[in-house]
Amino acid sequence: MKYSKLFGKTLRQPPKDATTVNHRLLTQAGYVEQLMAGVYTYLPLGLRVLTNIARVVREEMNLIDAQEILMPTLHPKANWEITKGWSNIDVLFKLKSRTDKEYALGQSEEEVVTPLVKGRISTYKDLPLCLYQIHWKYRDELRAKSGILRGREFFMKDLYSFHDTQEDFQRFYEIAKKTYLKIFKRLGLTAKVTEASGGGFSEKISYEFIVLTDAGEDTILYCDSCDFCVNVDIAKLKLGDLCASCKKSKLKQAKGSEVGNVFDLGQKYCKDFDITITGRDGEKIHPIMGCYGIGISRIMGVIVEKYNDKNGILWPKEATPYQMHLVGIGLDNKDILSKTHETYRKLQNKNVEILYDDRVDVSPGEKFADADLIGIPVRLVVSKKTGDKIEYKERDKEKTEMLSLEEVVKKVHV
Amino acid sequence: MKYSKLFGKTLRQPPKDATTVNHRLLTQAGYVEQLMAGVYTYLPLGLRVLTNIARVVREEMNLIDAQEILMPTLHPKANWEITKGWSNIDVLFKLKSRTDKEYALGQSEEEVVTPLVKGRISTYKDLPLCLYQIHWKYRDELRAKSGILRGREFFMKDLYSFHDTQEDFQRFYEIAKKTYLKIFKRLGLTAKVTEASGGGFSEKISYEFIVLTDAGEDTILYCDSCDFCVNVDIAKLKLGDLCASCKKSKLKQAKGSEVGNVFDLGQKYCKDFDITITGRDGEKIHPIMGCYGIGISRIMGVIVEKYNDKNGILWPKEATPYQMHLVGIGLDNKDILSKTHETYRKLQNKNVEILYDDRVDVSPGEKFADADLIGIPVRLVVSKKTGDKIEYKERDKEKTEMLSLEEVVKKVHV
């Protein structure tokens, strides 16, 4: 992509209403634009990042034999009355058609996926069944001031699993947990797993996957010596108490952002929608359900909160909108112009995804500042000085190297 | 994908409430499930088709240098008041937050894309600018009874172009028209281009891309001797009149379904949102806008309306959920089972997308009927009879051939 043509260039000034790092940097670097609080347009660079994160999630979901479907956003009121969500869930957006039909906007999809499964499973042999979707969700948040960390509309992966026994749910939970941690790791994030209350969903325990960041809305207590971690909302412990699990260290407290969660839904929804199947001993049972979320747009925000410096963003490789950022210096000189164009073309032919700053009337300093702000992991420079080589620099390092085109291509797949 | 594991198997009976071929076949074959009138869940097979159609559209949009973005579904009331759409557009879904903020659900995005562009273009040199998105749209339809042809929520590509002159809009319209016809052709559809009224959008003329099908909601007059085609809604002609263009043939009448449209929006939205740029002669001008839609979920429905027989669907190659449908016959025999599994594995390793009917307890007749109903273009059979070959049959032909695995793989890319 030629930067001169790119829609959504960097802005000279950060947005005035930005109170969080992700809102400020993503807006200034040309990734998103806020339409109103909690509602954002994704510009070309931003959509590429969002799509990359979704791709990582999708790849890992498919590896655990979850099947992708796509459920509607408009839900009939009747389904939400059956589960009592219509009156109990305060963040549920509701609307009426002109013929006074009432709908909810999807904020979670138990009310759709459970009746969908009804009639399509009849015995324990049909289970476990894991269905997921990657779709937009809508929540009537009272406050939506954390950039894309907490949106009134947000992009999410939600998976629903159906099991004949609690043991099978627990078995699958362990698989999902591993997969979640792998997903976050691929995206440069280390998540702590807490036990928390089930919110409106369930009386049962739920699990939260929290990435430590000062912009987070959750507060957790955690132990440095073991995996123990708990949300302060439900903790019977406090900062400085001895770890309840390993008893080796004193608990620390930190802010974090929830990037994923798992709810043990028990039989609630299968009872609500009257789903029975034949169990292993021939008896009629209600299946047990689990719900597993990953906030995709939120992860994009959390990455920015974690990976930034005074100059801009530093994208992890799997999330970056382009693999390399090629900067041409001195493009008013015909020879350098054609050499830089040629480098761009050759790298494209090698399937390297390149953002190419081809602007003629912009100073080197401004181009380098834009490259740092945008945050692609590798910056390449072609100029009078670089001869038949290319200057190669990683976003998080000071050091530059002079490499041949072939050497640059090899670096992509390191 | 192993059919035994697939969520969304074929149904023995068509749905009772289906009045259109696409609703009936897509439901019975396991592609979609209606949640309520005009609102559908896409099951794994259906989502693959929808994704394929979107991929074709995206590829062609990128070729004409349109840039993909993603705009929100929740729109602030203020934007729709500026354009008068809030009170004038009867299909606009409206909702309120619990703090009485009012929103519209996106049914078209001029109200978002125009202010988005403001401040990011300042001179004619920044134009033409073409932005598109592929996203769900919401329309409060009074009647939504045509399966996925007319949904209350539907998947759509919408592109917006900005120009400094009417001539440049016209130049780009011709490019877009060619691209649209190419997209439809890749998806097995031949569209006629009509001129029609601009609906609520514009006083200006608009263009509709209509595929002839009895399930369509539009009626058009067309000429067999030339490209002349007009929607009866605005035609001053009638069935049997001499073609107004070539004067060679009498006009025919047919039903059709609109799969795409183009609106010449003129300066309306740029005036509404007060966008001025510097024109070629240094004067201040309002840019001219065009809007270009393609109904992706609708195309999926139209394909089914066009390509079906008494046994089921016949997918075009670019839309089909899988490239080949492998049927194992006699899988209770260990040798045949392992030979069929081996064939499946080898074809997968050759990157052939395969739906593999691995069911043991189902008769050959039922498997063949399911394959015809699902409508993948190629059916492969491995059985006792096929020896070290594979029986190859195309969905729209009676003839079967015995091919080696290598020969089967070669057929994929014909």
Describe this structure in words.
Two copies of one chain form a homodimer. Chain A has 414 residues and is an alpha+beta fold. Chain A has two domains: 21-309, BirA Bifunctional Protein, domain 2 (2-Layer Sandwich); 324-412, Anticodon-binding domain (Rossmann fold). Chain A has eleven helices and 23 strands. The first copy, chain A, has helices at 21-28, 44-63, 77-82, 85-88, 110-117, 166-186, 268-272, 296-306, 334-349, 364-374, 405-412; strands at residues 32-36, 39-42, 67-68, 74-76, 94-96, 102-105, 129-138, 153-163, 191-196, 206-212, 218-222, 229-231, 252-266, 277-278, 284-285, 288-295, 308-309, 312-313, 324-328, 354-357, 378-382, 390-394, 400-403. In chain A, strands 3, 7, 8, 9, 10, 11, 12, 13 and 16 form a nine-stranded mixed sheet that branches. In chain A, strands 20-19-21-22-23 form a five-stranded mixed sheet, sandwiched between helices. In chain A, strand 1 (32-36) and strand 2 form a beta hairpin. In chain A, helix 1 packs across helix 8 (296-306) and helix 2 packs across helix 8. Mean pLDDT of chain A is 95; it is low at 198-202. At the A-B interface, strand 1, strand 2, helix 2, strand 3 and strand 4 of A face strand 1, strand 2, helix 2, strand 3 and strand 4 of B. Chains A, B: One of its GO terms (molecular function) is ATP binding. Chains A, B: Residues 33-316 form the Aminoacyl-transfer RNA synthetases class-II family profile domain. Chains A, B: It comes from Candidatus Roizmanbacteria bacterium RIFCSPLOWO2_01_FULL_40_42. Chains A, B: Its EC number is 6.1.1.15. Chains A, B: This is Proline--tRNA ligase.
